[in-house]
Design a protein that fits this description.
The structure is a homodimer. Chain A is mainly α. Chain A is elongated. Helix content of chain A is about 70%, strand content about 0%. Chain A has 10 helices and no strands. The structure holds a DNA duplex.
Chain lengths: ~200, ~200
DNA sequence: GTCTATATTTTGATAGAC
DNA sequence: GTCTATCAAAATATAGAC
């Protein structure tokens, strides 16, 4: 049984992904659901609240996915490899939602914006911790854990921009390519630039 | 002497960057220019045309910048290093415009959208050529030039998301970090995954 | 080149019947 | 829980005076 509350989210996700949040109207969402626009407001108090709901559940699921993947892993390179695979897979499998979560922050109220950013910071913190551990152990050679975490995350998001389900490459194949790229990119280079310390702040 | 035509673009760039294209109104642009909204239409026929103009000049300048950087370089690793630095520097120095060029494609008419994508494809083609050359010479070890080019480009765009002029890191420092990351990521890994060929299509 | 005034549409959201 | 009807505000764009 599919509730109208869930249908509205599904239709909104599709429209926000294709047209963007501001370019999508409540009427369009209602049309996609087969109801009148006034009926939307029985389920959600505002258009912004629909967007916030998408952000919240996507981020919660993403965080839970990473936590589950990392549990039990202690080797630092193994943790980073697992983190990349987890992140990439989630972004490819829930392409539309993650695209929205990454690009439609500006539609949120200041309060909701703060809540979303706080959750995102927690997620990024987990990645930065792995990078710092790796640098401390000499496995990675970065100058700045924060910047490297942004680089790693943006890189792993990039598949979601062009990925087409059922296309030439499978989700796992793409995850492996990124895993290889990130691990190599983080590792110490023979011709490393001067000062390969890892302050990380 | 600064023309009103140029002022409108400057104000629009700032607003599109901060609020997004659809969330920005003609009235706001006019207010930022100190004129009435009707006066905007003397200089540009529509809001979409302002957006298109930003896309066009940004892409043209970006392409010219890369061409200038690569001219005279023949060594494949040197070409890739130069391409990364060129791309990163341009994206940091013209942060607002490149952000718009990367995220506001959906506001364009179908015709303008096609024109912009065609130009972007040309730029990406140059990068893919370097990757294919590097793979053919055994300098890089990628499985797919197209995907690796997307990875490289998205990665090099990422600085523009958080960069603040006058902040802790200089433009050149950031360019060096990305250069190192990309070169390492593209190079053959000792534990490389199976089948390190480079089909590239 | 910039103005005032306005036409036309559409928006997000509410009231109240059923 | 969905409907019809409607409000008030704001949007893009145009006409014509100066």
């Amino acid at each position: 049984m599919v509730t109208m509350k869930a249908t509205i989210i599904a239709v909104a996700v599709d429209l926000f992904y294709r047209k963007g949040y501001f370019a999508t109207s409540i009427s369009e969402i209602a049309r996609g659901c087969g109801i009148q626009k006034a009926s939307i407001y029985y389920h959600y108090p505002s258009k912004e609240n629909i967007l916030y709901h998408i952000h919240e559940t996507t981020l919660d699921d993403l965080t839970a996915h990473l936590r589950r993947t990392l549990s039990g892993l202690s080797d630092v390179e193994g943790r980073m490899r697992a983190a990349v695979r987890s992140h990439v897979r989630f972004h490819l499998m829930r392409q539309k939602e993650t695209f929205i979560a990454n690009s439609e922050l500006r539609g949120l109220t200041p309060e909701h914006y703060a809540a979303v950013v706080a959750k995102r910071d927690t997620y990024e913190g987990t990645i930065q911790e792995i990078i710092r551990d790796g640098c401390a152990q000499g496995v990675f050679a970065g100058q700045d854990a924060k910047i490297l975490s942004y680089a790693m995350l943006t890189l792993c998001n990039s598949g979601a921009v062009w990925f087409k389900p059922g296309g030439r490459l499978s989700v796992d194949a793409i995850a492996r390519i990124y895993e290889q790229f990130v691990i190599q990119g983080l590792k110490a280079g023979g011709d490393g630039s001067p000062g390969s310390t890892c302050e990380g702040r």
